[in-house]
Specification:
The radius of gyration is 15 Å and the shape is globular. The protein has five helices and seven strands. The chain has one domain: Gcn5-related N-acetyltransferase (GNAT) (Aminopeptidase), CATH 3.40.630. The protein starts with a helix and ends in a 14-residue tail after the last strand. About 30% of the residues are buried. The chain is of the alpha+beta class.
């Protein structure tokens, strides 16, 4: 993300998130020290290992990870993979103390903007069927339900709802998305 884009996002995010100076930036390996203690809390049995994150961060051609922070405090993370014209949000996590303050919305918007920048025509994701707040967030951001993946989470005990966002080329990005 260019410094100019990062500055524009920081200026906008303060008003959107109800947190002072929320800044989005690309994730770095050094961020894992702050993230890993919260990974299990945020994702339970689906928590990623440090090695999984290292592998993901190593692939900058197809994958994009970012963090939301306020000062030196990590608030959340998000990740995206883009192959051809399809992008998929792989993860969005907000630390418990920062939830319900717009951080997740900022991460989702930034991931969609990155998918647009990478010339994707759609963004897909899976969300736990029992995670109603996340489903409402994605729906409010324009994602539509595609279907259900039975037994996707917790070793087959929890279904996933699959969702899709269509990136239309004939319209400008949302006011909240950085210009491309």
């Amino acid at each position: 993300m260019s410094e100019d884009r990062s500055e524009r996002q920081r200026a906008r995010t303060g008003a959107d998130s109800h947190l002072p100076e929320v800044r989005l930036r690309p994730m770095r390996i050094a961020d894992l020290d702050a993230l890993m203690p919260f990974e299990q809390l945020m994702f339970g049995p689906e928590a990623w290992s440090r090695q999984s994150y290292l592998d993901e961060l190593a692939d900058t051609e197809l994958r994009y990870y970012l963090v939301a922070e306020s000062g030196a405090e990590l608030l959340g993370t998000g990740g995206l993979i883009t192959i051809g014209e399809t992008a998929q949000i792989l993860t969005v996590g907000v630390l418990p103390a920062a939830r319900r303050r717009g951080v997740g919305r900022l991460l989702v918007r930034a991931l969609v903007a990155e998918a647009r920048r990478r010339r994707a025509s759609e963004v897909l994701l899976e969300v736990r069927e029992d995670n109603q707040p996340a489903q409402r967030l994605y729906a409010a951001e324009g994602f539509a339900v595609l279907g259900r993946r039975r037994g996707y989470y917790e070793q087959g005990r929890v279904d996933a709802i699959t969702m899709r966002y269509e990136i239309r080329r004939d319209t400008a990005p949302r006011a909240e998305e950085p210009a491309q």
